[in-house]
Protein: p2X purinoceptor 5
Amino acid sequence: MSPAPHSLLIHSQIQEVHGSACLIDSDCPVDNLNHIGNGANTGKCIIQPGMSNGTCEIYSWCPLENDTLPLGSEHFMFPMVENFTLLIKNDVTFRKFNVHRRNIQHWVSKRFLRTCHYDKDHPEYKHCPIFKFSTMFKEANIDHSALIHGGVIGIDINWDCDLDWDKKYCVPEYKFSRLDDPDAPIGRGFNFRYAYYYYVDGVLHRDLIKAYGIRFQIHSTGTAGKFHILPLTMNIGSGIALLGLAPVICDIIILNLVGSKKIYQKAKFETIAEEQQLIAARRECKVKPGDLPKSSKKKKKVSTESDSHSQEHPESNANITPSGDQNVVP
Structure:
């Protein structure tokens, strides 16, 4: 924390600000604002004794802000900050299951809270909601540079609950990480400014404070699940449908797209004798599919009847002459 008491006075702009140098008053337009300056021009050029160039006079709080660390860039401003503690209270509600949980467990007593510090490897202290800064620095792999320029630490609280078990097993897990860039060339760490305004002998004064510190950003997420018969039946039905459809899809692919589809056809389908005859007849005679079976069956039936007739009457052969005389052959 770097406080600086200021009063509202007229002050010359610093030489480092581009456009603030001047030789005469006309070089400093009245009420002109420089976006990197510290105030509006009064219209006067102030030349210090022994200097050839001057700077434009401005309306500003005096003295101007000195943006340097009070102890330098290598010394800790708060060497005992590692022993500071942070208490986190976090609640989560799973409305679908009507379950409400908080990170302070129901069995925790006041005595436990006064003495515990979070330790992820301890069976009881891993449920402690009080965190030492040193523990968070260690979990986030933060070195002592955060104690000089400040920093931003992210705390992730994750609730992953299986509500088929007792809800006492629904407890959070903590993870820590550094969110700012510790190697940034400019604007490193974390700081902010705020001011106090007051009057002394009727004159308005301001104390501008540039505070360096640790900023915590807490992010809480949660998921919960519980057994239900409806998703189970839907998954079983989908699996059965998929298993029934899989052979059909495989047959379509193999019978039409694979190079060895003829081999698969012979192995999968069995051609009966009648169909083989039809196929052979189509190739030879090129007749219609409905004509060949009927005609072939008739021919086969007639030949069979004639054969049987000849076998039943072996002695009925006769020679008939044109004149009608019959000669019986013995």
